[in-house]
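Just curious: can you write a single protein's sequence together with how it folds?
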Amino acid sequence: MDLIDSFGRTVRDLRISVTDRCNFRCTYCMPAEGMVWLDRSEVLTFEEIERVARICVEKFDVNSLRLTGGEPTVRAHLPRLITKLAALRLSNGEKPDIALTTNGATLRNIALELRDAGLDRINVSLDSLKAERFFAMTRRDELVNVLAGIAEAQLVGFTPMKVNVVVERGANDDEILDLVAYGRDNNIEIRFIEFMPLDATNEWERKKVVTQDEIISVINAEYPLEIVPARGAAPADRWRYVDGKGTVGVIPSVSHPFCADCDRVRLTSDGQFRTCLFATDEFDIRALLRNGGTDDEIAELIRTAVGLKWAGHQINQVNFIRPRRSMSQIGG
């Protein structure tokens, strides 16, 4: 049975946050100090995560599972969870696509283990190729390790790789072409992300957003582009380089919202079900998991939540309300 909201959008993608903790302190996501972490008892176990994922896959044919954080690789024994998820099957007998979004700092140590466990794809966050600027944006001196992690992931078979870049005016917008060149030279699709109002310190301003149109104009002037049609429910608009050296994407959450095609829902690390990254309401799946709830009761809660999913996040409207949680607490 498909999971369809009141606007006719079919849910196919479940984003699963496995931890609220992170080994970076990115300026657009977390404060430098003072984060209050969830107690371990509040975080879903692998068995609880697998159960929710199984219900979504088997009952609703959700065919994409993406693991996020915080930083998912700081969760101990992560490959065990991937093995559990890789054993799930859709109604047609196929395995769901399993992906991971990571900052890449420890990726070179576990890339092969993740691949062997059944992980299909990896997206790595990389906002600068300059060591000092990377440190300023992440508050961690890890650029060398991130680049090594990307290379190792490619070596063990994660191709093509995607690298996510949050572009913030005055911070790293002068590196757009450098990052594009890095992607073209290394068979990596760079995906630029518009700066979104999900930072923990409430410093987001509209003037700091470098829009999709601006980003593509800069790239096209140096490397001519042609649009890749039919984005569908994917969050990124994509272009191919006219000279054949790969593709580039932009996730335009602020300037060109893609809410009308959204097929995603989210499970936070403490077991709250969210129908949008910017949702102001959550549905407590953990309570059902830990108080004898049946699979049918969990499925009904999910169905109810999706039925209440709103049309869009309204970032550009006067009635926009920021979520009470920051990106690291929700799951990217």
